[in-house]
Amino acid sequence: MDLAELSWPAVAALSKDMPVVIPIAALEQHGHHLPVFTDSLLLGEVVRRAKESVDERVLFAPLVWLGNSDHHLDFAGTVSAPPRTYLDTLVGLAENFVRHGFRRVVFVNGHGGNDVPGRQAVFELRQRHRDRDDLLFLIGTYWSLGAKPWESMPALHQREMGHACEWETSMILRLAPRLVGDHASAVPVEPGVAFAPATRGWVTQDRSQTGHIGWPHLASAEKGEHLFRVFAADVVSLLERVARWDGKSWDA
Description:
By secondary structure, this protein is of the alpha/beta class. The protein has helices at residues 8-12, 38-54, 83-99, 115-128, 149-152, 166-175, 221-244, and strands at 20-24, 59-60, 104-109, 136-141.
């Protein structure tokens, strides 16, 4: 159910064991061919589809479009909350729901730059409430919940999420094709982690002058529909696990 559509007495009457989902995304550059609202559009659709399966069992907060996108600030149109500011914002959002009695808070993430501050946020939340064993704080990025979409669609070239890539471009082609520019002539930009297994600090221009990472020229609306189905199913599986949690155990 949608938090935005409920009165405060209706929210107060809900079971406090109901999972609360806070979708978090971004407003940032997505190469020459995709809109700056790509992450928010895609996560919104993934959540919309997931909601159809769990609607009465889960409380969905409105999507948070502001993300941690400092690494994209060299590109016009990017709007970002700095990492520490963003982390504190996520902690504050979760604390609001804890104050209202809810015990299971799940951040469903749709932007790679939110991952590190998001994980730190749930870590810090648990430390703040270390005297309670009935609270569950989670963050899950929708494309990293276990699915391997290329196994059920071999035509997919990529094996991981890039940026304005085959996957994201395909999903926007499925969702809002009028917003897609000339992706067919985009030159591939290899993904990957520099200096692996170490982690390098980077900004997007270190890797890509155009802003995309991956193979957008391989995108299609058919691939996009497949990706939406796979990723929405993963989100549903996670939320069902959260709903099944007994309120005490390490896992569900």
